[in-house]
Amino acid sequence: MMVYLAVVAITALLSFALTPVARMLGVRGRVYTPTRKRDMHREPIPKLGGAAMAISVVTVMGLGSLVPFLAGIYQAPVVGILIATMILLIMGVADDLWDLHWLIKFAGQVLAAGVVAAAGIRVEAMPVGWIHVENEIAQILITIFVIVLTINAFNFIDGLDGLAAGVAVIGGSAFFFYSYLLTRTINAYDYSNLSTLLTALLIGACIGFLPFNFNPARIFMGEVGAQLIGLLMATAAVAVTADLGALEGFRFRNIPAYMPILLPLAVMLLPLLDLVMAVLRRTARRSSPFTADRGHIHHKLVDGGYTHRQAVLLLYLWTFVVGYGAVSLTYFHSVVVISVSAIAMGLLVLLTLRPWIIRRAYYRKLNQMRAARAAQRAQEPTSGYGE
């Protein structure tokens, strides 16, 4: 555990140190996020923060190869992840500078995901029913789909200061603890694990960046940051489900068999839900699914009455309850976990709907007062000159 915590700390410190540099370069190069109707900010803010995050991840991942404890992890898959990260870094910076067409960005995402799959990180078994995917082409295609889907899901929720980075820290930490404890359960002698390393890097990069990105943000992560989060989160999830030794551990060591698919979905529930809703909404309007609008979940919360920070903190709570609720199913009695999670989610639903409930009650009371005044006026005798 100490090695992974050191990875988190070093990545966080490096990300924290590089983010001001990225901000300075963004200001000097005038690489700003434009102020559009759908955006929450009202003044230009530089958007190269994701580059600092990506450089931190690549640097610490490279340094990790010198640590004997992690030596067994550094094989072809790590090289593939490094190449994929560099692809997204270059493409993301280019998009921040010149606003690339969505087809070019999509092609870059597919290329990065394809490199990861070609390096050996693939969905080799579907956790539902333990259906093994024997065909290599099918493995690669499914892996590309999962990674690209996750990249765009996190890209879609990156609309409020600190939202994407904070959700990644909370969800990534849930995945980190699950992956680490799973590794200890399966192998009592070697705790090194690729998924745990990737989530440690992700948590560290986001923690170091978050102080500059939380409302009021001084820098945005841009395309690089959101895509990096999606790549690391999805790759960590695929690495867990592709570990056939882990699958045996799920079967024979009393670890719930549905966790390999439940946990990634739980951790990424918010981004995936927002992605699905956005695609349905835009398709219904007969526009491209990649066309930006102001209909995301975080926009609705702010429009409903929450402040910028309140909306972000509320979505943090949702991520925590769902993510850690799923992890708790592995280590605590399911009835207790489901009961506590249900109560917590019920309270969160009420908290989420609170502005609308208050507004509805206000208008109901207002209408009652108006009706009472109208009835009172109707009962008053009308005065006339003939009296």
From TrEMBL:
- The membrane spanning regions, by residue number, are 6-27, 48-67, 73-94, 106-125, 137-156, 163-182, 194-212, 224-245, 257-280, 313-332, 338-357
User: Keywords, A to Z?
Assistant: Cell membrane, Membrane, Transferase, Transmembrane, Transmembrane helix
Is Transmembrane set as a keyword in this record? yes
Record's signal peptide: none
Main location (coarse class): membrane
Query: Is the Transmembrane keyword given for this protein?
Result: yes
Membrane topology summary: Multi-pass membrane protein
Spell out the subcellular localization from the entry. Answer: Cell membrane
* Name of protein: MraY family glycosyltransferase
